[in-house]
Design a protein that fits this description.
The complex is a heterodimer of chains A (about 250) and B (about 300). By secondary structure, chain A is α/β, with parallel strands linked by helices. Chain A contains 9 helices and 10 strands. In chain B, α11 packs parallel to α14 and α12 packs antiparallel against α13. The longest helix of chain B has 27 residues. Chain B has a two-stranded antiparallel sheet. Chain B has 14 helices and 2 strands; from the N terminus they run ααααααβααααβαααα. Classes of the chains: A alpha/beta (about 250), B mainly alpha (about 300).
């Protein structure tokens, strides 16, 4: 199967600090991939290098075989990359439907239409309804986003990324700060994503991750520690070590 | 936007237009000229609101953009001997070009940096107008009869300005409600999300700034015909601040607030200065009170009250 995302020896250096140090990985098209690791392992920095928020200082990022290492964030979006944010990042003073409009228009030339009202055509309306339905936000269209509950805002995070119909969807801790019930909603949303969409997610919650993905990459200290299927990760001694600390043999 | 606006604001706009149209019928000639001034500055405030209210970036250089248009219009008629219409067109063109230059330098900044950068650029224009006296007349400025013969009477000139300002405001209103206008409010709320969705944020800000400068240029060209005199004061920081205050008093992000703000400030200036020389102190107190009791401005306050009642 063709690779959707390839990282080739990617490094990100902030002055003397190597936040990401020579990470190489391949994510085949359609795969669900988790990137895990303890705090400070470099997950978020790696994520930023993929989305373009920071530039990789060494190595290459390939999206569907094309080098995007030096492209700015918005240009990567045009190449089929979509993302959500760990800290809810919506348009709080706009309504839900206006948020969805912005999500749709980012890749359409209509974003430069200077005069006239914004109307969705039938196909666009279908996309909005599908994304909102999947995220369980139908019926909330005219509410301002700042009036939504935190859980609903997380759902809108997903809905906006979905509406752009990315071929590669990057989820940055989609369940951060959610109650168990809301977590279940988010994992249902992720499970319901179209199978053709490649999904890479960062997540702290191991239980959530391991039930959702096909393959897991574990980072530690900016380096790739181990890659394996979820079941193998659960029992992997090195993963347990970085998460829980070294077992004390002398005890 | 799909959200159907409540009919009350529409009614308010219709009433406002009627009021402005009826003013010359009831006011003495001097007051008609005050009303003309209000219209000109309303458009300046509206142009500032495009940036302050929609992109969330407060400009302090729009007085310079406005005034450059005034300079060019008056220069074209009095020194170069051209027609006032061509002068106005050139004035708007110059303002748009200047705004594009400001925009190139300022669109990658936000917050207080945007404020200071536009302030500094405005000061540069002011300095040039003051020192380049062979062209601008230096401190003495430029004076001359600019107004076309057809608009010689106060009342006919008032109606011409009313038509121009309403047409320009209508276009700006369409702009902020367009798909492009929505992207500006998106940038105001979250730039990083806009980038992730595929928007080239600086490009959108550049277009918004340039078009906003064009609207300020239209106001400046109208001001040239109204005032028939221009000096460095017209491009000064005080001018930028006054335009911004008008937008704030009316309500930032409401667009039509510019009309209320301009009317409030100009009417107060005229009445208070009639009674006391310390009118600026009185104005200052008014601003303080407004910022305490209605920081969202007159229209902003009204809309908030409406929303609460629903």
């Amino acid at each position: 199967m063709e690779d959707c995302l390839v990282l080739d020896d990617v490094g990100v250096r902030f002055g003397g600090l190597k936040a990401v140090d020579g990470v190489s990985l391949r994510v085949p098209a359609g795969q669900r991939r988790a990137i895990i690791g303890p705090n400070g392992a470099g997950k978020t920095t790696l994520f930023n290098a993929v989305t373009g928020v920071v530039r990789a200082t060494s190595g290459r990022v390939l999206l569907e075989g094309r080098d995007v290492t030096r492209l700015p964030v918005h240009a990567r979006a045009h190449r089929g990359m979509g993302r959500t944010f760990q800290i809810t990042n919506l348009f709080p003073r706009l309504t839900v439907i206006e948020n969805m409009h912005l999500a749709l228009r980012g890749l359409s030339p209509r974003r430069f239409a200077l005069l006239g009202e914004d109307r969705l055509d039938a196909a666009e309306r279908a996309r909005v309804e599908a994304a909102l339905g999947l995220s369980r936000l139908a019926g909330r269209l005219d509410r301002e986003v700042r009036e939504l509950s935190y859980g609903e805002q997380r759902q809108l995070e997903m809905a906006m990324a979905l509406a752009t119909e990315p071929r590669l969807l990057l989820l940055d801790e989609p369940a951060a700060g959610l109650s168990p019930v809301e977590r279940a909603i988010v994992s249902d949303i992720i499970r319901a994503l179209p199978r053709a969409m490649t999904v890479v997610l960062i997540e702290h919650d191991m239980d959530l991750v391991l039930s959702l993905v096909d393959w897991v990459t574990c980072l530690d200290n900016g380096r790739l520690l181990v890659e394996a299927a979820p079941d193998a990760i659960r029992g992997d001694a090195r993963v347990q070590e970085v998460y829980l600390g070294k077992a004390r043999h002398d005890a | 936007m799909p959200r159907a606006g409540p009919s009350l604001p529409r009614l308010g706009v219709a009433l406002g237009v009627l009021l402005f149209a009826a003013l010359p019928l009831v006011l003495p000639t001097y007051q008609v000229s005050v009303a003309t001034r209000i219209l000109v500055f309303s458009l300046l405030a509206v142009s500032i609101d495009v940036l302050a209210g929609y992109t969330g970036r407060t400009p302090l250089g729009h007085g310079a953009i406005f005034g450059v248009s005034t300079y060019v219009t008056i220069y074209w008629v009095t020194v170069a001997g051209g027609s006032p219409w061509a002068g106005m067109a050139l004035g708007v063109l110059a303002a748009t070009g200047l705004a594009a230059v400001f925009a190139l330098l300022a669109v990658r900044t936000s917050g207080v940096y945007f404020l200071l950068l536009t302030l500094a650029l405005g000061m540069v224009v002011w300095g040039v107008c003051l020192r380049w006296s062979t062209v601008t007349g230096g401190e003495n400025g430029l004076r001359g009869s600019v107004r076309p013969a057809a608009l010689a009477s106060q009342v006919s000139f008032y109606y011409a300005v009313l038509a121009l300002v309403l047409a320009a405001t209508f276009l700006v209103w369409r702009l902020v409600r367009s798909p492009f206008g929505l992207t500006l409010r998106g940038i105001r709320d979250s730039e990083s999300r806009m980038r992730a969705l595929g928007y080239n944020v600086p490009l959108h800000l550049f277009i918004a700034f340039t078009l906003s400068g064009m609207a300020a240029g239209v106001a400046g060209a109208a001001y040239a015909l109204f005032n028939e005199f221009v000096s460095p004061t017209t491009v000064s920081l005080a001018q930028s601040v006054q335009g911004l205050l008008m937008a704030i008093v009316g309500g930032v992000g409401t667009l039509f607030g510019g009309f209320i703000g301009a009317a409030a400030i100009i009417v107060l200036e005229n009445t208070v200065s009639f009674y006391t020389e310390r009118w600026q102190t009185v104005m200052g107190l008014m601003f303080v009170l407004l910022m305490i009791f209605a920081p969202e401005g007159v229209i902003g306050r009204g809309l908030a009250l409406l929303r609460r009642r629903r």
